[in-house]
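PROTEIN DESIGN WORKSHEET
SECTION A - STRUCTURE
LENGTH: 476
TOKENS:
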């Protein structure tokens, strides 16, 4: 839906694809044309390159945008699109291959003078123990073709190495069709900071600022903001310079994100996300630029339209609303959304495909939508987002909204002292502490009590049961 809207701003017509279970999804109605895919499983649908190309041919499109999941960083798909005579809205295949081989990416950026963490190349199972001894614990097992937190596992000692590798390989195969993994040293207590870049055919490379993405569970982001709190102007300049140098070193083109771990005034390169990021709206909110429009301009004309210099203003923060139960270790939820109330007001943007009747299935990522707030300061942006989430109600399935409401009241977050271990504080708060659960649940129930009478539902009792499930009030 985000891409369709950008295309319409440029007066471009759009065609989309959908799996059988997504046949009633909002994006199917929003696009100018829609084409079915053979099955629901990712291998039959959104990872099915022949079926996608067949749909592109049937639609008669000029260009293909891969979105930000599934094949968005797949060099073979980009090559197949180009081979079919179509423009690919993203980096060229040779760049995607470099970025897809994380060890090659590390070599390129290291040669450009960017510091990197100790790590390995892709490994067979019998190479894991030796490589782990060299990298050192704690470490991450990461999918070579990974993205979006898929196929990543933290390993603290050698005892958990093989089991974690097995899990990472399985997740990587399911998500990306590639089960290769590598190792990378992990810094406990560091911040996750990334830099958004755009590069075009003229050789122009622009860094549009940095984002803090430290609030994560299972290495998937829950909250993102820009500018990154706690990053000094000197450190910011070095991070942006490193991202531009890395992009030039690999001949980058289109939108991309260079990810770093930050420890005090020191930083280390992690990887390149060679695609549009889920959290791109916060950068758009502070720069006033449309990153998808710029991707399309680069793909169809070779040149971006960004002003020089960019003049970012204010602060933006995003909450990812996922179909997960934060009271049950963020366990993914499936079911049908009964009702939705979305927020509005000054400085608020909502990106999503949420409406009553949408089915949330086991096949795809649980992300439902994103609520983004802009303010003149971080404090104003957080206050607006907190207010917006208090206006938001989704019934039928549990969501992460209770976690977000807690996070935006937490002193550690409000004073920007949090790190990548922040979610553990939430887990400690709710795990085995029934008296605290009761306080949180009561606040959630009061919120739903205000909203539920306005939620559309065939039976009022069904709405209340759904609201109770949403807020983790099973015992009540």
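SECTION B - SEQUENCE
RESIDUE ASSIGNMENT:
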């Amino acid at each position: 839906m985000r891409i369709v809207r950008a295309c319409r701003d440029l007066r471009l017509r759009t065609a989309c694809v959908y799996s059988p279970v997504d046949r009633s999804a909002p994006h199917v109605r929003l696009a100018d044309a829609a084409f079915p895919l053979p099955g629901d499983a990712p291998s039959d649908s959104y990872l099915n390159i022949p079926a996608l190309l067949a749909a592109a041919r049937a639609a008669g499109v000029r260009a293909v945008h891969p979105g930000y999941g599934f094949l968005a960083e797949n060099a073979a798909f980009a090559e197949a699109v180009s081979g079919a005579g179509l423009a690919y809205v993203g980096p060229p295949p040779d760049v995607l291959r470099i970025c897809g081989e994380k060890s090659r990416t590390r070599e390129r950026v290291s040669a450009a003078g960017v510091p990197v963490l100790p790590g390995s190349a892709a490994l067979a199972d019998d190479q894991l123990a030796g490589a782990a001894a060299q990298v050192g614990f704690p470490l991450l097992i990461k999918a070579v073709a990974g993205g979006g937190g898929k196929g990543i596992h933290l390993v603290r000692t050698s005892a958990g190495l093989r089991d974690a590798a097995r899990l990472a390989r399985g997740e990587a195969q399911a998500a990306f069709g590639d089960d290769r993994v590598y190792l990378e040293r992990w810094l406990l207590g560091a911040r996750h900071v990334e830099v958004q870049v755009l590069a075009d055919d003229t050789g122009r490379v622009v860094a549009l600022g940095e984002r803090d993405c430290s609030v994560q569970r299972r290495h998937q982001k829950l909250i993102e903001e820009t500018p990154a709190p706690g990053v000094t102007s000197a450190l910011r300049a070095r991070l942006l310079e490193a991202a531009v140098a890395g992009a030039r070193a690999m001949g980058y083109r289109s939108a991309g994100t260079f990810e770093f771990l930050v420890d005090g005034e020191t930083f280390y390169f992690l990887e390149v996300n060679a695609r549009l990021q889920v959290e791109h709206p916060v950068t758009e909110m502070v720069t006033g630029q449309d990153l998808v429009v710029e991707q399309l301009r680069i793909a169809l004309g070779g040149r971006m339209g960004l002003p020089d210099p960019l003049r970012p203003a204010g602060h933006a923060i995003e909450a990812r609303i996922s179909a997960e139960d934060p009271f049950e270790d963020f366990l993914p939820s499936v079911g049908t959304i009964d009702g939705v109330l979305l927020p509005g007001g000054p400085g608020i943007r909502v990106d999503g495909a949420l409406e009553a009747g949408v089915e949330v299935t086991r096949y795809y990522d649980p992300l439902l939508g994103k609520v983004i707030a802009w303010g003149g300061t971080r404090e104003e942006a957080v206050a607006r987002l907190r207010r917006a989430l208090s206006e938001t109600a989704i019934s039928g399935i549990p969501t992460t909204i209770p976690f977000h409401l807690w996070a935006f009241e937490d002193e550690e977050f409000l004073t920007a002292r949090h790190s990548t271990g922040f979610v553990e504080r939430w887990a400690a708060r709710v795990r085995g502490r029934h008296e605290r659960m009761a306080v949180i649940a009561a606040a959630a129930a009061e919120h739903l009590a205000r909203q539920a009478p306005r939620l559309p539902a065939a039976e009022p009792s069904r709405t209340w049961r759904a609201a109770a499930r949403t807020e983790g009030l099973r015992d009540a």
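SECTION C - NOTES
The chain is about 35% helix and 25% strand.
The chain has a mean pLDDT of 90.
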